[in-house]
Amino acid sequence: MSYPDFPYRIDTQGRTATTLHPDLIRDRIEQVLFTQPGERVMMPTFGCGLGRLLFAPAGDVVAEETRTLVATALQTWMPDDIELTEVTVNFIGSALQIDVGYNLLPSGDPQSASFTREAAG
Questions:
Q1: What is the model's pTM?
Q2: I need a labelling partner for 39 at 20 to 30 A (CA). Which of 28, 47, 49, 58 fits?
């Protein structure tokens, strides 16, 4: 089965671009991580809001708080889609890098995804 791709775009045939289930789940993880709470109409608590952390002082304490924030958000918003196995957070210069390990549900297939965001400005 195919699903609309994120971000939404038109494919070369002029139709809505589609993706497969593993990519759909990866896209949903990205949406949870980088959506600020309050951005979604009718879902004011959706998201993790990592954008605000791009300007936080890099350090072990902030990295651990970020890891906990990510794990909590994913377990809150995707409990039927993934079984979270690992979250690592690193600050690389002005960038925030998050690596997520998870098992797809219901199959249990192991997957991983990496997300990097640069600080604006």
A1: 0.86
A2: 58
CATH of the domain at 112: 3.10.450.40
| Strand-pair partners of 19 | 3
**What is 55-87 written as a DSSP string?**
GSPPSHHHHHHHHHHHHHHHHHH-TTTEEEEEE
φ/ψ region of 47 (left if φ > 0, alpha if ψ in -120 to 50, else beta) reads: left
Q: Look at the chain and report how many structural domains it folds into.
A: 1
Give the pair of three-digit tokens for residue 75.
Answer: 């377990």
Give mean pLDDT in consecutive 10-residue pieces for the chain, a chain of 121 residues: 90 94 95 92 90 70 88 96 95 85 96 85 49
- Print the domain residue range for 86: 3-118
